[in-house]
Amino acid sequence: MGNELMVFMVMVIVQVAFAGMIIITKLVMDSGMDPFVQSAYKPIFATISIAPFAYFLERKTRPKMTHSILFQIFLCSIFGITANQYAYFIGLNNSTPTIASAIDNLIPAFTFIIAVPLGLYTFTILKVCSMDFF
């Protein structure tokens, strides 16, 4: 019972923090900050705050950085994070935090729509087991 309450409380705290981040971002952009500058500051701040934990806690277990891994990180950062942040901040600049929060929840649906044509996910309407994404 206590563990379930803790999970619930953490979930609520994360959602409140996420909503606060959206509202603060909207206020910053309304005061004149460019969305492209905002999307550059966000990953820089995240890297500075998370990198020490990753270095000290994972230094003995992390894999070697090969060219293939660095290229995959580059592709994920350009297409997965940067493009998403640009679209998100431009949309937030032109609308409300409520709409931005609702649109952000559509990312799994867009991922699914992209994954099916690329063959990363096989989808059969008649099979119940292929509907596990719902």
From TrEMBL:
Belongs to the drug/metabolite transporter (DMT) superfamily. Plant drug/metabolite exporter (P-DME) (TC 2.A.7.4) family. This is WAT1-related protein. It comes from the Eukaryota. It comes from Solanum stoloniferum. The chain crosses the membrane at residues 7-28, 40-57, 69-89, 109-129. It holds the Pfam family EamA. It is found in: Membrane. One of its GO terms (cellular component) is membrane. Residues 9-129 form the EamA domain. Keywords: Membrane, Transmembrane, Transmembrane helix. The keyword Lyase does not apply. It is a multi-pass membrane protein. Signal peptide: none annotated. The keyword Transmembrane applies.
